[in-house]
Amino acid sequence: MTNTQPRRAFKGFPNALSSALLKWLPAAALTTLASFAFTGVAHADDTAQIKHGEYLARAADCIACHTSNKAQPFAGGVPFNLPFGTIYSTNITPDPVHGIGQLSDADFISAVREGKSKDGKRLYPAMPYTSYTQLTDADILAIRAYLRTVAPVAKPAPENTLSFPFNQRWAMMFWNLFNFSSGRFQEDPTKSAEWNRGAYLVGALAHCQECHTPRNFMQGLSSKALAGAELGNWTAFNITPDKNAGIGGWTEPELIAYLRDGAAPGKANAAGPMAEVVENSTRFLTPEDLKAMAVYLGTVPARNNGETQPRFSFGSPIQSVSQLRNQALTVLGGGAPADGRTLYNGNCASCHGWQGTGVGGDSAGAYPSLLHNTALGAATPNNLTMVVLHGVSRQTNQVHVAMPGFADQLSDADVATLVNFLSMQFGNPAATTSAANVAKMR
């Protein structure tokens, strides 16, 4: 049921007085007052809602899209580079001028669930209202209650730089006509409470389909739910229960471990955008919610685009150390460029082992095996190339997992040579790249 009771513009001030203040106080004063009002001690009856809202905001990973500077969480400014320009995320701190301090609860619900701003303008679907439309009033208002407690930041979002006609917000009504269906989550009475909770988490709060579902020519979600999609230079893999193309060969504990820690030994290690999801969001979820997500994902329609072998099934260890050592190191001394074995020995073997089997076993901070690793067994080497170039950084509940990037040490040709060697030895031999492709991804 929608909450129709207006919230006070500032806690501790009557509505009439706060409304009057908003009319004549300068922006600087409003920001100062907001800092006092919105970050004060919450009323006892609000504490549970705020705490729940913080949990929900983490489940929805709000901070990832609305934080460009970690010192100013939720102040916006994150760029979304699209084929037709760049969109910047908005400030969702309680600042009354540049943030959401003056939004009513109804305004906030409309923005989150319907993609409409206070002034009636349509939001661009970089804001995943196409998934958030399923959220309940209670959950949205809990998130709002939590956001009222964060420090207000007087910082406007940068102007979007979209080309015509994409810079015409009114045209979004036509996009929504074909790509958006408003509606709340409906429980399936034939399924368990755990399954329904997982469906709500995956489909609404965590909005997994926004990354893992292919998009149509209008950049709307296609009908191939969770079948995998390209995100710039990264691939968000198929997470349907197909045994070859998806996660059908994963056990439930492995999927839970991956969501919690970003690592499922013998299967996958999170990097890039997924590492950020683990760091900012899924590691904070309760064991019950993680299990519910795993249960639900195991039941969605399986999809396969012709894959005949699971991504984690590829690879064999290097059998003899002489395969690595008996190569002339010619990179620094001139002559012919080093081959993949030399590059592996010089840049990878110290952490991943000369055989590629990793170091540290299944421990939280282990250097993972390159065998049976989905990044190397994928049909394209996009994720592998991005990891070689830019490394890995993933904070878990136990350790900080890090791998250095080699963009500054290796040329485009060297990266391509190394990636092709890694794919041939430890992964999918058909997944090859070129120096030109590396240059584009760099």
| Overall pLDDT level | 87
Major sheet: 3 strands, antiparallel
What proportion of the residues form beta strands (DSSP E)? 5-15%
**From the alpha-carbon coordinates, what is the Rg to the nearest angstrom?**
24 Å
Number of helices: 20
Distance between the termini: 49 Å
Structural class: mainly alpha
User: What is the total number of structural domains?
Assistant: 3
| Adjacency order of strands in the biggest sheet | 1-2-3
Number of strands: 9
Low-confidence sequence ranges: 1-44, 329-334
- Helical fraction equals 25-40%
How does this structure look, described?
- The chain has 442 residues and is mainly alpha-helical.
- It folds into three domains: 39-179; 193-311, Cytochrome Bc1 Complex, Chain D, domain 2, CATH 1.10.760; 313-441, Cytochrome c-like domain (Cytochrome Bc1 Complex, Chain D, domain 2, Orthogonal Bundle), CATH 1.10.760.10.
- Helices cover 39% and strands 6% of the residues.
- The chain has 20 helices and nine strands.
- The strands form four sheets. Strands 1-2-3 form a three-stranded antiparallel beta sheet, with no helix packed on it. Strands 4-5 form a two-stranded antiparallel ribbon. It has a two-stranded antiparallel sheet with strand order 6-7.
- Strand 1 and strand 2 form a beta hairpin.
- Helix 9 crosses helix 13 and helix 15 packs across helix 19 (412-426).
- The protein is globular.
- Residues 1-44 and 329-334 have low confidence and may be disordered.
- This is Fructose dehydrogenase cytochrome subunit.
- Residues 1-44 form the signal peptide.
- InterPro entries: Cyt_c-like_dom, Cyt_c-like_dom_sf, Cyt_C_IC, Cytochrome_c-type_DH, Membr-bd_ADH_cyt_c.
- Keywords: Cell membrane, Electron transport, Heme, Iron, Membrane, Metal-binding, Repeat, Signal, Transport.
- It is found in: Cell membrane.
